[in-house]
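Lab meeting minutes (informal)
Scribe: AK
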Amino acid sequence: MLRYVESMKEMVCMAVLAMVGAGAPVLAQAPPVVSPATAEAQQATEPQAPAPHAAPVDPFPPISLKNFTADSPTTAEVNAFLKQVWGFDANRVWSVAAIQKTAAPGVVRVVVYAADKTQSGKVSQSEFFITPDGKHAIAGGVVDFGAKPFAARRALLQEQANGPAEDSASKDLLLVEFSDLLNARSKEAQETINHLAKEIPQARVVFENLPADGSIYALHAAEVGVCVRKAKGDAAFFTYVDEVFAKQAGLTPATVEPALNAAAAVAGADPKAIEACAALPATKADVEASVALAKAADVDAAPALVVNGRIISPTAVPYETLKRIIAYQAQLDGLNVQVQPTLTTLK
């Protein structure tokens, strides 16, 4: 019934960079930043015979200074960016192999070798490009680049993500879900997010509507939800959401409106009053504001979860890895997050 388009602008880029790894402990630390010049100097001065408790052998090919032809970004800046992206995985190590000028004026090519400590001898190569303004990276998609690539989006959502919310009143750890009530993957994502809300009580979880383009049914479902919230509050809204998702699979164009009315009633609202509210231009404008916020945050379609500005596909990342990413992002933002043990069977 609905057209589904996966929101992948940032996730594609991170996938190309091989972002997600499994098996790392919570709050992983990135390897130290070492410039190519420093690395060669260390190699020239260090003794050849390893110490009794020497560090593991470097798995990467030798660094050549000939591959560093661009003045910006520096190796330290690339490492700071990769620490934000990869640092949650303590088993991931990497080496910046090249920062090169390209034929396109101002565009810089960055090459990175990466490996997993648990997989000896396996080294992968990733590359991405830095735009002339130095603020964006391109690798199958466009993402913010820098030591704090998610900060601007975090600030935007802290200010403007004012949808129905649950858990913490503080916006220090803000999880914003963009969801389509008639989208099957949004239903799957909601189950994951509900468990996250229980296991990370310090997080504030905010729901923002992002109905599929051109779907009058998804738009109407969002409008009814807006009116349920206005009439009965945030708790009632989430009851409505759970009820719609529970009935989602069997809906047809003929049964959508009765099902939405029934869900509103379960949430404690008067279906007739809700229908009248849903028909108001102000209600449609409320949904359009949520859609505009998604666009401003570079979220293309539902489902998407934005953790302190970091876009994650909640249906594409294993649950335990998702928890690690959230805890690590919180640490980067100066927060001490207590993650409860997983009591679910989510994968």
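Next up, CB showed the second protein from the same session:
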Amino acid sequence: MTSTVQVTMHEPVWWDPLAQLRRSELAEGITGPPVDVFMSGTVFLDIVFTGLPAIPAAGTEVWAAGMASCPGGIANLAVAAARLGLRTSLAAGFGDDVYGDFCWRTLADQERVDLARSRRFARWHSPVTVSMAVQRDRSMVTHGHRLPIPADELIGTPPRSRAVITGIGEGAADPVLPSWVARARRDGALVFADAGWDPTGVWDPALLGTLAGCDAFMPNAVEAMRYTRTSSPRAALHALAEHVPLAVVTCGADGALALDAATGEEACVPALPVDALDPTGAGDVFGAGLVLGTIAGWPLEHRLLFAGVSAALAVHEFGGSLAAPGWGDIGDWWRRSRATDPDLRERYGFLDDLVPRTHVCGVRRAAATIARHSDVTRPA
């Protein structure tokens, strides 16, 4: 059983899904890593317009029914992990502008993401993405500049952690692991990687050789099939499993499948049907759930199901990073589903031992405006 952390009456209650693991380590005299998951990347200010009847044509103006502002990019993954109770550390660059202020405060003060290896840069403006959601799809416009220093210089020595999450190359056109990832792995971290879309269209199979430095690889079905030159997600999965201990292929509305060489498990699970409003960050939420389940030692099928329901709850909200569910959201969904749907009650029965039985902190959703400093506080 997991349990809540010990707090005073006046503090919010946070749920720690790794409490049992931490107690076991303490009992054995093991000093566990101070960080559960570490990552590095670009934080964008995301401005999301919703309820658009259509993408505006040249020379026209379209009014949106809704709008949301929140940190985006790597922040999607950091917030998803932190809201699932993982002690999350992020290395990123932030501008010294109002956008940077907002993203920094939201991540550090509201979402409890450790920014000890992040930096503010003078006269470097924060990257910005404008996303327009139309009929469950989205179009984006982005502006930004390269970070003034290399990521390895920004990070230095990565913190000791249970896991790191990284991309391989930029758009997978240059398949290479960042050097800080190898250092983290030597210190005991599991390496979870994805590659993302290859804008060159080459889909260089040299990426598969890079997987020797990883413990898990989590592409979607299109990426997996193109890198492995296979014609089905299952064939791609088995091809990837020859290169990495934990291979996972996500298939959107068709669910996900995985092979774990460490446990000998193979699993294929369906997706949770949901009215998807905004797909932004769904893959990041899935990845955070998979990392949590792997660290905690859950069966492979449970890891995939948990990651899937977390992603499904995320796409049911607008707002990218701040659409990520917390344990309160997961618990509410499970109690409703358990009471009304026998099939879900059987398939997700393992959640009985995971979801909190006491009230936990709610999560903030993305708001239309960029909050003033006094408005950004810990959720009550």
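CB comment: The chain is about 30% helix and 20% strand.
No objections, moving on.
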